[in-house]
């Protein structure tokens, strides 16, 4: 019976680690953005790790996939199980912290392919922790599926393929795009809220200083005069009780000089957006390609605009640095990170529909009609 339960746990954990790892390996840049959220001052306050987020992301997802393979084929069971246990204990703590303090609303466990709430992520990790504990207790039942040379070769091949995949998607774009702005998306329709869709519900909450501590008191209690004696009013806020329908595309704007050009740009028959969510973090070899590309696209009748969250001074600095003559418009950095992974990157629209997306390394592959 112990052997059967061990083999079931072995298969479940191994397959789940491989699937989860491959989804994130398909988009390590996206996972690095999620790690930056965790490292921020608002969550773990480990901002010194932020510059290394992409490197850490690649290491974690490759290790996750290879660990899954190692478990399934029985490669060095003691090392594999200990590694799995250490990883799941860390992520269980992380997802609990995130859920309890409501710091990160999506753990990024399955990238953009499957969104989990913080508590769903924590529950998933608890289940995995139980399964890995079964493996830890019954390590003697984890035996290699075939000979030592074959097992070693399988791990080497898995590791090599993961390295190649990571390199490829970083030099181009994710192989499979799970994001809301994938090719074929009609941005205007994706921004619409269907009639009758559930709306978010909020509760009015008052904050009072009670014995030196800021304490939330409900509207009903305030109206019923149940505020502790001597409490001092601090603030009032609307607390989300139930989240309503959120369209796949939200917070997408095209602004310049205080004016909103979103609707007019999305009506244009031929638009190219040159996206750099942060110009200070843009790649020099990519930025150098933009002006020549802009000139070619403009000759073909395209409206070409830059999209960034950087300020006016930074925009002018970088336009001068790279000799750029097209205009930059403002959009939220998180939205721009969601649209594309390269910095800069190219997105082609036809009346608001995404028809092409390219990494700056593939700018010569953009089809100009």
Structure in words:
The protein has 369 residues and is an alpha+beta fold. It folds into three domains: 2-171, no CATH class; 201-242, no CATH class; 250-365, 3-Layer(aba) Sandwich (Glutaredoxin), CATH 3.40.30.10. The chain has helices spanning 2-25, 28-39, 53-73, 77-100, 118-137, 148-171, 187-190, 219-223, 262-267, 284-287, 290-299, 312-322, 333-339; strands at residues 201-210, 213-218, 232-242, 255-256, 259-260, 271-276, 303-308, 328-330, 345-350, 353-359. The strands form three sheets. A five-stranded mixed sheet has the order 8-7-6-9-10. A hairpin with a 2-residue loop joins β4 (255-256) and β5. The model has no long low-confidence stretch (mean pLDDT 91). It is found in: Membrane. It is a multi-pass membrane protein.
């Amino acid at each position: 019976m112990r052997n059967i339960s061990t083999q079931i746990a072995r298969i479940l954990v191994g397959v789940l680690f491989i699937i989860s790892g491959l989804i994130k390996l398909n988009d390590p840049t996206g996972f690095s953005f999620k790690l930056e959220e965790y490292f921020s001052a608002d969550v773990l306050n480990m901002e010194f790790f932020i510059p290394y987020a992409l490197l850490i992301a690649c290491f974690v997802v490759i290790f996750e996939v290879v660990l899954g393979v190692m478990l399934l084929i029985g490669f060095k069971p003691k090392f594999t199980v200990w590694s799995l246990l250490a990883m799941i204990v860390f992520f269980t703590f992380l997802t609990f912290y995130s859920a309890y303090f409501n710091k990160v609303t999506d753990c990024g466990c399955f990238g953009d392919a499957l969104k989990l709430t913080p508590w769903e992520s924590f529950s998933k990790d608890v289940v995995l922790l139980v399964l890995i504990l079964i493996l830890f207790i019954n390590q003697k039942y984890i035996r290699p599926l075939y000979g030592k040379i074959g097992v070693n070769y399988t791990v080497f091949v898995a590791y090599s393929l993961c390295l190649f995949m990571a390199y490829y998607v970083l030099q181009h774009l994710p192989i499979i795009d799970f994001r809301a702005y994938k090719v074929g998306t009609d941005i205007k329709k994706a921004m619409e809220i269907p009639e009758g869709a559930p709306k978010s519900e909020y509760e009015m909450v008052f904050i009072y200083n009670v014995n030196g501590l800021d304490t939330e008191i409900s509207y009903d209690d305030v109206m019923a005069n149940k505020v502790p004696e001597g409490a001092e009013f601090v603030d009032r806020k609307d607390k989300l009780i139930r989240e309503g329908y959120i369209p796949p595309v939200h917070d997408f704007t095209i602004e310049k000089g205080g004016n909103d050009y979103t609707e007019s740009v999305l009506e244009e028959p031929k638009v190219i957006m040159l996206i750099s969510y942060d110009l200070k973090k843009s790649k020099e070899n990519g930025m150098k390609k933009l002006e020549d590309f802009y000139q070619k696209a403009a000759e073909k009748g395209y409206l070409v605009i830059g999209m960034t969250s950087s300020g006016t001074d930074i925009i002018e600095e970088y336009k001068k640095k790279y000799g750029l003559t097209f205009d930059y418009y403002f959009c939220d950095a998180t939205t721009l990170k969601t649209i594309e992974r390269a910095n800069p990157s190219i997105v082609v629209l036809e009346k608001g529909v995404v028809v092409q997306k390219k990494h700056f390394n593939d700018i010569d592959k953009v089809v100009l009609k």
